[in-house]
Design brief:
Elements: E1 2-6, E2 10-17, E3 28-36, H1 38-48, E4 53-60, H2 61-73, E5 77-83, E6 88-94, E7 99-102, H3 111-122, E8 129-133, H4 143-154, E9 158-162, H5 168-171, E10 178-179, H6 183-190, H7 197-210, E11 215-218, E12 224-227, E13 232-235, H8 248-260, H9 267-282, H10 293-299, E14 302-304
Parallel strand pairs: 1-4, 1-8, 2-6, 4-5, 8-9, 9-10
Antiparallel strand pairs: 2-3, 6-7, 11-12, 12-13, 13-14
């Protein structure tokens, strides 16, 4: 079982309009709503690939109820922790040429609900996987990540991290099975550059030295890298017309896991599937169709660079 944990769930509101003029009434052409939160997205895509998954997270108010109901409609198992404050709505506006992102901080999570979530995690199936992804809402400090990982270690649950918090560097001492940074996060958290292949190799080696067992480095239109500490592979990207980058990285991670786990094999196919799925999502409104993955995979090449 691949569990996913979203501490800061959200609804994504994708708005399309022709131009965006300040101080004027801007008419929208269409709007899409979708349940969201980085690890929620991972569960949605894993389910599309027929992989067993269960979504954990904090859900609050009418928006939190909507997310759980939508996941249930998709027949995705959930273990919600309900709170009183309202789950955020993230807004993505495409004016025909540019994309604007308005992302909320998130609701207030009281201490008793933080304890309730830890209790849920302590009862997860042993020898499974937990994907921890996304930001922290109000009243949850970065030490909460550590509490979660320590619980996972007691149950032999392998941890996969996709977080942009500076705490990531310290969490690597727990030797997570996989982390999925992007190039900006390597720079912001570790101070590592990725402009050249040599810099990428050095960056991956450095992050391994902190404790990461495996690294999936996503770089958008520049492709992605995977390193298991011994070898490094690179997969290119297909050319698309960007509609919205929302959810693309999460979809890439889920696609990779769907091929790579549990035996940690099929690396080349996993990388192609990750790159193709991310591109398919980026050229559409969220996680709806995923109709071009096979054709995109046929266009991709994976190169072993070390």
């Amino acid at each position: 079982m691949i569990y996913t944990l979203t501490l800061n769930t959200a609804i994504d509101m994708n708005i399309h309009c022709q131009g965006l003029i300040p101080y004027s009434v801007n008419r929208t052409s269409h709007t899409e709503y979708s349940p969201n939160g980085k690890a929620v997205n991972v569960s949605i895509v894993l389910h599309k690939f027929n992989k067993p998954t269960c979504a954990l997270g904090f859900f609050g108010g009418f928006t939190g109820k909507y997310i759980v109901e939508e996941l249930n409609k998709m027949q995705i198992q959930t273990m919600p922790c309900f709170i009183d404050d309202i789950t955020r709505i993230n807004i993505f506006i495409n004016d025909g040429q540019k994309e604007y992102k308005l992302v909320g901080k998130g609701p207030f999570v009281p201490d008793n609900k933080k304890a309730e979530m830890l209790n849920i995690i302590s009862n997860l199936e042993k020898n499974s996987y937990l994907v921890i992804s996304g930001s922290l809402p109000n009243n949850i400090e970065s030490d909460y990540y550590q509490s979660i990982i320590e619980l996972c270690h007691k149950q032999n649950i392998q941890v996969i991290l996709d977080i942009s918090h500076p705490k990531l560097k310290q969490l690597l001492t727990y030797r997570p099975l996989l982390i999925k940074p992007n190039d900006d996060e390597l720079n912001d958290i570790f101070g590592l550059k990725t402009q050249t292949i040599e810099q990428v190799i050095t960056a991956l080696e450095t992050v391994h030295s902190f404790g990461a067992q495996n690294i999936l480095l996503t770089m958008g239109s520049k492709g992605l890298y995977f390193s298991n500490g011994q070898h490094i592979w690179f997969c290119d990207a297909v050319t698309i017309k960007l509609v919205s980058s929302a959810c693309a990285g999460d979809a890439s991670l889920a696609a990779f896991l769907s091929e790579w786990l549990p035996k940690q094999e099929n690396i080349e196919n996993a990388m192609k599937k990750a790159s193709a799925t991310g591109a398919n999502v980026a050229e559409s409104d969220g996680l709806g169709l995923l109709d071009k993955i096979s054709s995109y995979m046929n266009k991709l090449t994976v190169t072993k660079i070390r």
